[in-house]
Amino acid sequence: MGWMFAVLTAAFLVSGGVLHAGEGNDLGLVRTLPAPETGQDAHVGEVLGIGISADGTAAVSVGFSPRGKVDVIHWSYRDGFLLRRTVLDAGRAARLRTVCATPDAEFAISAGADNVLRIWRVGEKRLERALPIQWEDGHSGAINAVTTSRDGQFVASGSSDRAVKVWNLRTGALLKTLIGHSKAVVCLAISPDGQFIFTGSEDKTVRVWRLSDGQLLRTMEGHSKSVLAVAVTEDGGTVVSGGADGLVNVWRIADGGLLRSLQGQGVAVTSVAVDRGANIVVSGGENGSVVQWRLSDGSVIRGLGYHNGGVTSLAIAPDGFQVISGGGDGRLRVWRLHVQTSEVVAETPAPSVDTSVAVLMTELECPGMDSLRAGTLTEKLRVELDQAGGFRVMERDRLDAIMAEQGRWLSGCFTNTCASNIGDLAGADYVIVGRVAQIEDMYSVTLRIVETATSETVASAAIECSPCDFSAVMRESMRAAAVALRDDFQRRLRSRQ
Asked: Are residues 212 and 318 in the same domain?
């Protein structure tokens, strides 16, 4: 079983947030690992590495506890069950800061403030070796980041001593020492072909090194604060970096040019991942937010949701349809990516044109938003559903008449029972209920999609932004609602086949 691993270690900075979505209340959230119904425990500490099998059926996550315990968990991430847990004891004296695993999950590598890398053979629960073997080869400062090559032949470490060291994982020999950063090295990534290593530092730069001879090839300057995360595309042509300045920068490796700077996370970006097709970037923030971007033009596709702690690792599934995030809360969350490709459309049946949606949106809490009445929001949703194809949005006037006949106010119909009742009277298959509120310069949007026949919640979201382009937020909210409706329709269609 092949695996792809994503690893991040960073120092987290605290700043104000822009986009927030409540736990379990997001249109992109598929499940949390472990699933609550299993009664299983999550990681005790931060999740710092995630691997996804090539067939997309299983995942491995690695983390550590303050007591020096290295935690390796195998998951069936499709249903949220913990399959196997391995706990390795490095000891409190190791003062661990970072941990990763080889792509085949055979070895785990931990390191920290004692300047020592520990190589663990996971299946046998034993320490294989400690690096450096020769003490003069080691780091003189705390190790902040470790990562391995895809073939599992070597491991790289970045340190507060400003150096990067490359080691033969099987023999423990020091292969290269890379010197060039002026401050602590915080994050690392190795190209898929194993020829280059990318490093991010507190000196605000991203650097590209050739591993064969250790030569520094590029120094990329564009962040105003520390670089906290790096990821490289499958073809090795582009590197993405996340910074404490809240930016996600996209660089062309050939000449070090800045292709675009993605702005909108609003907080320190602590993790980044790129899909294999180099179409999608996913970033995680120190406030727990997870955001999906379109790489081609740098636009935000959607805010997926959040962790109850900073996002510490990300990995996109090989098929590009889902991403797993790990957080400071010790949990993993699986998110549905919004992918717009002809292939996807061709593979999934469209809803019937008779599939109807009723929209019950109230803005009674927004006295200053005269230009964005409920009818306007309904029209925005109509546009997004038209693009998704196959849905019919019911006329607002008809819904208002039904509400009046029932003696109900829009603002008072927020329960699933009420929504289902109105949907039944209107002949709608789904009902979207929601509120829009404005408090000073902060906007709050809540949405819930209810299936009329069952009164079940298909998806829900709670989004806040301040300051922001409210129209853009509503557009993305409606787009996410359209995607959730389409996904639910397809799921129910498959269940009947």
From this structure: yes
